[in-house]
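S.,

Sequence below, as promised.
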Amino acid sequence: MALHLPFYANAPHIIHIVQGRGVLGLIFSGCPETFEESQQGQKGQQGQQGQQQDRHQKIRRFRQGDIIAVPAGVAYWTYNDGDSQLVLVHFLHMDNEDNQLDQHPRRFHIAGNPEDEFGQQESQQGRNQTRGPHGLRGSRNNVYSGFDTQPLADALNVDEETARKIQGENENRRNIIRVQGQLDLVTPPRTRRERQEEERLQQELQEERQQQSQGNGLEETFCSARLIQNINNPGCTDVYSPQAGRLSPVNKFDLLILRSLGLSAEWGFLYRNGIYSPHWNINAHSAIYAIRGRARVQVVDDNGNSLFDDELSQGQVLTVPQNFGVVKQAGNEGFEWVALKTNENAKITPLAGRISAIRALPDDVVSNIYQLSRDEAKQVKNNRRQVSLFDSGSSSQ
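The prediction came back faster than expected:
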């Protein structure tokens, strides 16, 4: 059982759960502590002096295929209570207006002595270490460690020894720590049916709020906001081709908090040799992360130059700028990916298929601009009847 120490970042980000399941805790300042220990559990601990009932903010469960939206400056922690490795992909949107620092991704840890994940510590010595009247401080990559121990102890109303532990003094553990046994968390027991019912009710609640187009301040917008959406559930597929694959976007209409983050996501899986129609992103940049398999990907700029024509394989990332053309074709083992898009309602225009740009043109316009006969123009417009996912074997219909 492993626990990732709490931290916050200087930009909003989206997390995709590639593998595993676990528990997520977000720290929303000013939100109520709605999870509390039962009276029975409290009575069992009355023998301990000064023991208080455990209360904390809402804990959320996540699983493989989930998309998690995290606002800038909101601290969170994750806990792997499953029986397999937990693999997550983080997309940070550094150009987002909520980031008022520079373009460097920064993680501000509030526990332990975590390593510098972005390799910037040497260039930021002046920021990470400052000299005060009591000497050099803040060398442990923990926000608490930069404060002087005595005023920190006063602020927390604890003794200085406890304050030094919070600062990570003599702490050798890094970003992820191993938990002995299991974490004793206040969580409601749930069956699969209860989970499905809760998700259905949450979806209905979000739809009602969206229709009303009015909010009640912080508690409605963040404290009770739905932050997790499963993106590769077959029941939520947006585009499906039995021969080519599946495609599932998540935008502000699926996950309301994405509206405030200015982000959306797309998950897709192409079967063997399947093609994702050549297209352009109308209103967003796209960062593509290859989860499994391989695909040939081509990217074309505004001058018709091929900027990228290569294989994208597991673990690699490719950024496609707004309006640049892109096409994917899976290899023999198929191709699964997830993409972050820098707009809360990202849209594409296909260059082939039933809803393509060519399909929208009159036959005679297609004939003239491409120097085709009318019959050839009709074939170009109508030979692909699928929407955006194609089987490479069906070159004509």
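Residues 9 and 95 are 13 Å apart (CA to CA).

Coffee later?
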